[in-house]
Amino acid sequence: MAIDRSLLSGSTAMLLLRLLEERDMYGYEMIETLEQKSQNVFTLKAGTLYPLLHSLEEKGLLTCYEREADGKVRKYYSITREGRKNLKARREEWQEYQRAVVSVLQTAW
Amino acid sequence: MAIDRSLLSGSTAMLLLRLLEERDMYGYEMIETLEQKSQNVFTLKAGTLYPLLHSLEEKGLLTCYEREADGKVRKYYSITREGRKNLKARREEWQEYQRAVVSVLQTAW
DNA sequence: TATTATATGTAGATTATCGATATATGTCAA
DNA sequence: TTGACATATATCGATAATCTACATATAATA
User: Fold this and answer.
1) Would you say the C-beta of B3 is within 7 Å of strand D?
2) Which residues of chain B have a CB within 8 Å of the CB of A6?
3) Percentage of chain B modeled with pLDDT above 70
4) Domain boundaries, chain A
5) Which CA distances in Å does A3 have to A44, A66, A73, B17, B100?
6) Strand D contacted by A10 CB (< 7 A)
7) Which helix (H) or strand (E) is A66 found in, with range?
8) Nearest residue (Cα to C1') for D21?
9) How far is A90 from A101, CA to CA, in rounded Å?
10) Which of B1, B4, B5 is most worth mutating to test chain A (most A CB atoms within 10 A of its CB)?
11) In what order do the strands lie in the sheet with A25-26?
12) CATH of A5-106, one of 1.10.10.10, 3.40.50.300, 3.40.50.2300, 3.60.10.10
């Protein structure tokens, strides 16, 4: 990663769900989109992404279907109702965490 | 933790260094102070803190000395010059990471 | 005197991410 | 046409951060 990988820990699933909130995507597309949207801060590895997608699917947060595009069969992922609910919770958790970090970093003692 | 523990990953050392930037503290004091300053978002466990303090000391980011206070011998930690340098880098990394998350979450596509 | 808060510590388990590796197809330039 | 590179998906084992559980000891309080 461009940044210490441990910082990303736990927020990757949220970021993927956020991408899929906008539109269905296939795995490789998510890696590239995240990279662009974050100005190269998030350079997610395939070895991280695919197992994560499978586990999100198992948990019912995503569904998967195959579709041909540009002469290639790709696996598109779609966020479920449960996935949207989960995303909402993760966003709130992230806001809470972020506020807390800022308050420790900026505190005037 | 009050929040998903994985979110905290990687930022704990930064938070501890930040506390010690203000004044020397002993371990237990850091747990309580973090809890207060974060409004109970960061409830760091002893099993996380002490090994982390030892590793930061090994890396030369902290030094340790014993002192008696309130009739108790406590182990106070002090941030080193190297620790301040490290804190500065971690803060910058955190800002970069935070900006990137926000930009993915908020992006108007 | 018993319990709780303070205070420090270790061992083992869990989890997220990574690097390395594997496979297969499409594209483009030499 | 052939070799290299980008695209696309996937698994395995290693690494690292945190947790739970446990252990120990003292001080304060009921």
Assistant:
1) no
2) 9-10
3) 94
4) 5-106
5) 11, 33, 33, 19, 11
6) no
7) strand A62-69
8) B47
9) 16
10) B4
11) A25-26, A72-79, A62-69
12) 1.10.10.10
Q: How far is A74 from chain B (nearest CA, A)?
A: 22
The DSSP call for residue A109 is -
**Which residue is closest, via its CA, to the C1' of C7?**
B28
Taking the model in full, what pTM does it have?
0.92
Q: What is the pLDDT of residues B2-38, one digit of tens each?
A: 677 788 888 999 999 999 999 999 999 999 999 999 9
Residue whose CA is minimally distant from D11 C1':
A47
Region B46-60: what's the mean pLDDT?
95
Residue A81 has pLDDT above 70, yes or no: yes
Beta-bridge partners for A79 = A62
Q: Inter-chain contact B41–A97, Cβ cutoff 8 Å?
A: yes
DSSP per position, B60-92: TSEEEEEEEETTEEEEEEEE-HHHHHHHHHHHH
Pick B10's closest partner by Cβ from A7, A34, A41: A7
